[in-house]
Structure formats: C-alpha cells, structure tokens
Specification:
The structure is a homotrimer. By secondary structure, the first copy, chain A, is α/β, with parallel strands linked by helices. Helix content of chain A is 37%, strand content 15%. In chain A, the strands form 2 sheets. In chain A, strands 7-6-5-8-9 form a 5-stranded parallel beta sheet. In chain A, strands 2-1-3-4 form a 4-stranded parallel beta sheet.
C-alpha cells in the first residue's frame, strides 16, 4: 500500500496520482476546511543536503494543516558528523515525529530508511534517484493548466542528468500524452530512461531544435543546463543560448502555451517571459503546498 | 498606504508611528487579547545575512499572536547559491507565507522585492539602508520611559556608519525633540544626514564631549564604535575609552536618565551600569516583541 | 527550589527524580491529556554547540504540549560572533521566551546564565559539566525496564571523560543500586568521581573485563570509546574491539538484560543486537520526549 511510504513516483498508479491531485485540488479550493487536520502532529524534516524550496514547502504544508515540524538541521550540526548511520538517525528521529521527510544525496536512501521505521517516510529527493512530490506537483500544475489527457508536452534542457525530468516523463506514461524531448545531442535522455519509457508504452519523440515542435505544444517544461556539465565554457554558452526561452522564441508559440520550470532558474528563461500569460513556474512552485498538504492528509493516520 | 509594505521608517507619518506605538502598548498591557490573532497564518523569514535578535523577535511576535513562521534558513543552504535572483526567491516564497520579513545586505533590496510580490514585505534591514522596526521599537522605548514630546536625547558613538542612528534621528523629527549628537570628529553624522535633519526642521546640536550635555538629557542612546573603522588599534582604544559609559560617567547624570543601546554591546557600556535604574537596553530589546506584534496585527489582512 | 532552574542532576533529591519520572510515565501513557498544556508558551533554544538529538527532543516536547520554540540558531549566525557576552545574550532572549534551554561548551555556563534571568533555565549540557535531562531520561528508561531499586547495572566504555556516565552514576546513588564500572585501565572513572560516589554511599565495583560480571546484570549501559583519546590508532582498535557488544558477547547475558546507550553509537554495539529484545537504546532516545515534557510541565508557570 503506497501510503505506508512515498518513495518513488513509479510506485503510484494512475489512480493513486488522481487521488492525490483531486485532494490537492479540493484543498487549494478550500484550505480552511483542512486547517486543523494535523493538530498536534509533527513532521520530521531530515535534509542531508540543502533544499530550501522543498523544505519550506513541506513545512508550510504541515503548518497550514495545523501541524508542526521538527527539523534535524544541517548535517554539519548533526550526529551524522559523529559517524552515526542513516538507519540509526531515522530510528531515533521517528520517536519525535509522526512522519519523516527525507532528502539525501545517496540514491536509495529513502527506501533503505523505510525499512527501519514504523512511521511513514516521504522521499524528498535521493541523489540521482527519485523526488516523487516534485513529480506530483508538476502533474498537478499540468492538469490545472492543460489537462493530462490528449496533452502535448515539450521537455527541454538537460535531459541526461535531470532526476525531475526522468520522473515526470515516466509518470506521464500513465496518461494519454505526446512527449517531445528537446535537447542538444550531448544531453539527450539516457538510453535506460528511453527504454523504460518505451516499455511503458510512451508516445515519445526527440528533437534537437525546439522551433519545429513548439507550435504543437500545450506545455513546455524547461530545465536548467548546468555549466558544470561542459568542460568548455564557450561550448556551454553556445548551447545554453540555443535552449533559452525569450520573447523572440515565444513569437511562434501557441497562445495558451504553459511554460513550466522546476526552479531555481538562472538564464534559461528570460525575465520578460515572467510578465506573459505563458509563465506558470511560480504558480507551479506554489502548487507544492496543496499537493504536499494532500499527501500529508492522505498518509498520516 | 504604508500597510502594504514597511520599507523605511521615513514612509511613516507621525500618525502612523503613533498608531503602531499605541497598538504595541495595548498588546504589551494585555497580550492574551491578541493570542489567536494570526491563527493559521505564516510569516516568511528571509534573512540573507544573520541577525539572531531581529529574527527571533519577529518569530516570537508571530507565535505570540498564534501564527507560525517558515524560515528560508541561511543563504548557504538556499537556492540563492545556485544563482537564483532575489526577485525569483521572493516570488516563490510568497506562495508559502502571508507576509515576508526580509533582511538583505544590499541597500534597496526590500523596496525592489516589494515590486514583485503581493504579500506585505517588512524590511528587517537592507545594508546601509533602513531598519524601520528597530526605529519603531526605539521610539516605543523612548515614549515609555521619557515621552516623545519635550524630549532631550543624546545619541552617542558611531554616528557616521550607524543605520540605526540615522533612522532614529529622522523619525524623531516628527516630535518636539532636542537631539544632541556626541561623537569623535571622525565619526560625526554624515553631511547628508545632517542636511536631511535640517530640512526636516530638527532641533540638533553636535558635541565631541558628553559631559557638558549629559546633565540636560532624558535619554542617552549609545551605539558601538567598531574597531574595524580605525586603521590604528591604539587610536581605537583611546576613542572607545572616551565614549564609554560607566559609574563614573553617570555620577553627573540626571537621576531618571534612561540609557538605551540597540545591542549587542561590547565594551561601550560597563556591566556595572546594568544594575542601575538607568539601564533600559534589555527592556528595549524586549520591546521588539510587542512592537512587531503590533505591526503584524496592523499589516496582515 | 529546583524548579526555578534545572542545572545539574545533583540538585535533584530522590523525591524530585521520582516526581519527574512519575509525571513522564503519566504523560507517556496519555499524551493527549497534556496536549494544550503549553498553549501560547515559547521555549527559547540556545545551543552554543550542535546537539541535534537533544534539541529536537526538547522541541518535540514543547510542541507536543502545544507550545512553540524560538531558536537562536548556530553561534556562527548569532550576536555572539560580534562579541556579545553570554549574560547579555540570555538577558535579551529571556524577553522572547517563557523558559530557556541552554547548551554551551563551557562548564558552569548554565549556572552563570541562571543568575541573570528570571525565566527558568534548563541545562542541556555544559561542556564537561552536567546534562541533567539526559540523566533523567536514563533513569526513566532504567525504571521502565528493570526498576531502580535492587538494580544491578554495568556501565561500560569511556568512563573517564563521559559527562553522561558521571552524572548517571551519581544519580543512581539515590537508589539501591549495584554499579559495576567496566573499562580499560586508561579510561577508568576519574578519582574525583570515585570519591564523590564513595561519599554518597554508592555500592560500586570496577572491572576491566565484562564477562565476569555480565551474568549478574539487569542493565548494561554502553558508551562510546572515542578514537581521539588514543595517540595510537592500533591501540584504539584493540581496546574498542574488547569493549564491543555483539551476539557472541550476549550469549552469556541474562535473558532480560537491557542494553542502553546514549547514542550516537559508532561501532560499540553491533547492528545484530538491534534485533534482539536486549536493545533499548532507541526506546531510551524516544523517552527523552515524555521526560522533557514532564519537566516543562513541572517547571513552566
């Protein structure tokens, strides 16, 4: 039963996803109705690497439901520095909280931790692994703006390293979606992810150039191309410039194209886009609150 | 309307100041009466540089009103490190909170941020710029101890660099106050501030020596002279010693002289002063709570 | 009256200890009954050195009682860095909170701080000094598992430097307890502690080898032997290996032996022990919550 722990987006069936998104929608429409839902409950926050946005969003969700948080703080100030194992840390902290939110640099950390505790664990990112609540808030935003069935989505930028992208692409295979992947050759989806999508029966195409496909899209999901991926600074600038969204690029976009981005952005979307009706990335970030409220509401006993 | 945002003390009319101080006084007299005022509300804390005292005071104020906080944490652990702009950060975090408290090393940061968000922003210090809630708690303390009209106040120490001093001096021009500035020549009020006070019709005199004016004062506001301002360690010690308050200095002080200090202090007020009835600096720090409670009460919808 | 401040375990009479443990037991049995006990109250957390576990446990305790916390944060981000004295810091922060929890690297810090404030101070560890709430949760766990009178307890590991051990050993002199200290010669209890226990009429024996005494024990309290104490890495490994608990060692243990550890552990208890009924160290850590709830309940006005 997925409600014991939320470890990956893959564990969620289409029905599970819809349950969460429906509940999030109800909560967004009437947050007052769930205000005391977590009265007297505490959410344990274990962030073994920084993630302001995700952490604040979970904290907000818990508090909007009337609950509280206890935060392990940074690794530098924790028992981890004294050599404590993750298994021990979670077994101690489960005594303080009614559910744990875990962010960890090692892939598989949340799954491993879930074997040691009795309270629900929510994976808030495990290295190159999973970040299911990001996927859920992405799906929620897509559903609110364009609907999930019959959707044509472009996913652009760094498709090779992006955990967010892989997870979202997989989750979209539950719905009737055309997925267009747009990236430079060097940052294509990894073969394993393409295989996985193929196995799941996804309707997928890859492109090096956005312009051909842009007019057909309902949603364009942009991700950051990281400087660190390129040995050569000039090559980085050349490529980043080609995959940047600005007013010129959007001249050919459908009027109701929704542009999303997991944030933080650096240069990949020009500030002028913020003023247009296309920009949905701040709303997307804000949607993290009702989606996480829905999860806590569904998962906590 | 100032209640949209509180960016500088200058934006407050005499009437505005009195509204805040009156409300703070009511709250201090009966804190129970406002205990549920912020039930279910969250204050976003964005401290881009450390400021324990101010942050704790805002957090206490929010919680004493029944509200909560969501804290961005240190810059080192935030998306800022990934190159996110201040405008993006505040636009994301406004989705988590009902008002934002912003501390930032750059002058003008709060004003800039206020142009991007719909929730109220309170400036908790922007570099060499403003720190209006410090000014309000200073005014509140002065009013409680000596009254604001007909007041004779000495302001002593580092008058050149002190944001706190400039802001307080300006705010006092709304009232019938004699202001005596006491400092070494090298740390005089900057010309621009003197001009500003002159334009505002302030009643101002400058002194290098405290002794002549001390017997006439109702309040002496002491600030720290920072070692870093002096190229020569000996010169620093000579000057700091001359502007230090101890029992000897206070022998000539009026019996009901109130000594204030924005804290933290280092050596500029001797510990022996703490035991006297003159010492009002801890009470001054504590007054930050009712004053900030009053602001949140007035500013939050 | 100890309820003004809790500075050392030594200040607590047998009656005081029993009052706290009894209250903790009631709270553990029915936490709902005290859920609103600290409504509207704030606990100030001043941790001048990191201690995740203790801090989270106090935070949980306050919140489970319906109260909140205001946290000074790390020393790096505080006014302490500007040269503020501890006396000033606590005098400012007492204006924000209804009680203070203080952790400080200097022995005597909590006692010193208690002379400057009117709100209750709870010592959460002062260097080589005291950590009375750890002692209380240890006593609570012992009482729950084996009872305190007629107890035979082994205390093993680093007995020379361990503040936890010294404090627990002293507290046990209030009860009818046989204490067996097991350590290498180089990490024996300090002479001053042995003298102190002798003066208190303790029933104490020292051993270099666990095997002889193990079959007689009700409780074995294990502590970490720190690598830093040994100039020679090989010597450390030899000794740490001798004082390590694993399934082989436990073959000779009484069936109902309770193994405790203040945590974090590194290697001194093998993970295989976690699965046995002997393991009580996670429960011990969790007991910090009801014990600290009991203290807050008893100490806050």
């Amino acid at each position: 039963m997925w409600k014991d722990h939320l470890l990956t987006a893959k564990q969620l069936s289409r029905g599970d996803v819809e349950t969460v998104l429906d509940r999030a929608g109800e909560i967004a429409a009437d947050p007052e109705a769930v205000r005391g839902r977590l009265d007297g409950r505490l959410l344990g926050l274990l962030f073994f690497e920084p993630s302001t946005r995700t952490k604040m969003s979970f904290e907000t969700a818990a508090k909007r439901l009337g609950g509280g948080v206890v935060d392990m703080g940074s690794v530098e100030s924790s028992s981890v520095k004294k050599g404590e194992s993750l298994a021990d840390t979670v077994r101690v902290i489960e005594g303080y909280a009614d559910a744990l939110v875990l962010r960890h640099p090692s892939q598989g950390a949340a799954t491993m931790a879930s074997e040691f505790v009795d309270v629900p664990i929510i994976n808030a990112g495990d290295g190159a692994g999973h970040h299911p609540t990001q996927t859920l808030l992405d799906l929620y935003t897509i559903r609110e703006t364009a609907g999930l069935d019959g959707l044509s989505i472009g996913i652009m930028g760094d498709l090779k390293y992006g955990r967010t992208v892989h997870s979202l692409a997989h989750a979209l295979t539950n719905f009737d979606v055309h997925q267009h992947f747009v990236s430079p050759e060097s940052l294509r989806l990894p073969r394993s992810v393409r295989y996985d999508l193929h196995q799941a029966g996804a309707n997928v195409r890859e492109h090096e150039d956005l312009s051909a496909v842009l007019p057909t899209l309902d949603v364009l999901y942009v991700t950051r191309i990281q400087r660190e991926r390129f040995p050569d600074e000039n090559e980085y600038h050349a490529i980043a410039g080609e995959y940047r969204i600005d007013a010129d690029v959007l001249a050919d976009a459908p009027e109701d194209l929704a542009i999303m981005h997991p944030l933080p952005r650096v240069d990949e979307i020009a500030p002028e886009v913020d003023e247009t009706a296309h920009a949905r990335y701040f709303e997307q970030a804000h949607n993290g609150v009702p989606v996480r409220m829905a999860l806590l509401d569904l998962m906590l006993p």
